[in-house]
Amino acid sequence: MKKKRGKRGEREARRQSSRQRQSARAKRENRRRHIPESLRSYITGTVDMKSTGKAYILPDNKDLEDVLIMPNNLGHALHGDHVRVLIFPQRSHLRHIEGQITEVLKRNKQNIVGTVEFSGKYAYLVPDSQNMPVSVILPPDSLRGAKEGQKAVARIVSWPPHLNSPIGEITAVLGEPGDNNVEMQSILAEFDFPLEYPKEALKQAQKLSGEISPKDLKERRDFRSIYTCTIDPADAKDFDDALSYRPLGDGKVEIGVHIADVSHFVKPGTPIDREAYERGTSVYLVDRTIPMLPERLCNDLCSLNPDQDRFCFSAVFEIDEQAKVLDCWIGKGIIHSNRRFTYEEAQSIIEDAGLAQSEDKTPKTKAKKTGNKQDIEAVCTMFKLSKILRDKRFKTGSINFHSQEVRFKLDPETAKPLGVYIKESKESNHLVEEFMLLANRYVAERVGKVRGKNTAKTFVYRIHDEPNPEKVSALSLFVGKLGYKMNLKSRSGLVKSFNSLLDDIRGKAEQNMIESIAIRTMAKACYSTQNIGHYGLAFPFYTHFTSPIRRYPDLMVHRLLERYLQGGSSVDQDEYEEYCQHSSDMEKRAAEAERASVKYKQAEFLLDKVGQIFSGVISGVSKWGLYVCLDENYCEGMVPLRSLNDDRYELDEDNYRVVGIHTGHTYKLGQPVRIRVAEIDMNRKQLTFSFVR
């Protein structure tokens, strides 16, 4: 009995000691929370929530470090919220500055997407997103007929201080999980894109007329007699850019870049304009496009369809054989497109003429016809000039990032993915790209360059800042370990190094991984009225003028350009800077939604392949696990470190690897591996792999 009492006493002593430690910790935390007002330090920033429940604050002041927020200091903040944070005194043994969220200044999300679950008389929405750490309580009268297990959208109604979860109400019942349409709508709702167009805007669109009046002709330059074509993907439904071609003699040609004149139909403050601004951009999910404008506009009135007269905003260039621009006219016009090319058809003309150099790694699409003599002359001449422009651009400092897009071959009935491939740009893509870049540059210069005593007017620029030197240095160290060298001594040396690196890795196992890291090293391009130039393109002036059907900033550019060409005064810079910030935010949100749809389709593609073995390469390293990109189908999943039972592995962040603490065995970025598909979580779009040795 004494022995038992002794053990009981030891346990009680341990409990008492634990309580004392907890009490002491609570007192320390309490003292930290009750810092005298005069000594308090606050910042504002955005919440970056992690799946573990803790979060980091990304400060509004970019010069400050991120602030760690532990779960008990989050208050009622959610991922993406703009918040006010109390900074705790720095503790020397901690790596991160810590703080406490004291106020939610602005909620980021309007919609929460998840699955409805019942527990007794209570109902909850269990969020799909890993960044949403709590479920939403659903009162019985807020369900709108939602049933157990269905996908639904809810909005937060209130969040009483004494509750750990918010109270919400269902705003839309989407349907059964796994249904393709339900899942795509879930992604749209998750990123706060509307699921339908407002009726008021649709009614306005139906009333619009495409008739051309004598007044319209008088105010526009007439290009209808000049050869004009569009070059777009085979499945494109709207055509917002066209190219015209006219020989001028003496080796000179006139190339016109004609852009759909959306501003003719969409006036500021109208229902269509308000909705287009809120959306900011069209969204391109794997199986569908969610247009910024009603279909009446984007697929009909504004689309530069063949054999139809269409209003446009044009940049028309007189160019010599060396692709030197001798003159440029910018203004409103009217065109009549002679031919609609697919990229494959234009590529066929280029290849038949012996002008192609790229290797086609995408599925073959047979071109219907190569074109008549005029088609061939126009496409070949424009391509030769575009190639000169492209070569000049890289020689003067543009960085040649190779774009790799994951595409899916879908079942036409169910949208189930039947195959995965990489879509790469080819010569026909480059042809269009170079003339769009030329137009964007000249339009920006026309407004942005100060001439004489005039001051530059407020304008919308597409800007790209210089990369962070620390990130560039880290990239250089990393690729150096893989045998590649970079010159960081000057901008020209760095750009040359970037381009050499991107050329050297092409076709190699580490290509996708290094390209991804290189892109993350660069600053993010965005819209602004403050012109700092475009680092990646090496353009001192650059804007987005060429896609007003699918990008709201381009519509703003058209309106401002027309105003200034007519001698109008400058608009308010602060007002337009706010518009630019919103457009940049919506562009980022659309890209995240597009990536989510790709992840879902990748998960769906591998769903019936659980247990199968694939080859891949380690594409990412974290303290949670190793990301592996599969060679055959480009799907990326994670091998959790906890699943490696031969040792306990720790992250060696500086060397992009994990190391076994007993065996010294390593897994590093870029290493070829073989994996087995272990588990697919469709709700979270997560692929879990395990290593095969």
Descriptive account of the structure:
Strand 17 (309-319) and strand 18 (325-336) form a beta hairpin. This protein has 693 residues and is an alpha+beta fold. Helices cover 31% and strands 28% of the residues. It is built from 14 helices and 31 strands. Helix 2 (180-190) packs antiparallel against helix 14 (573-606) and helix 10 (469-481) runs antiparallel to helix 12. The strands form 8 sheets. Strands 11-18-17-14-13-12-19 form a 7-stranded mixed beta sheet. Strands 1-2-3-5-4 form a 5-stranded mixed β-barrel. Strands 8-7-6-9-10 form a 5-stranded antiparallel beta sheet, with helices on one face. The longest helix is centred in the C-terminal third of the chain and has 34 residues, at 573-606. The radius of gyration is 29 Å and the shape is globular.
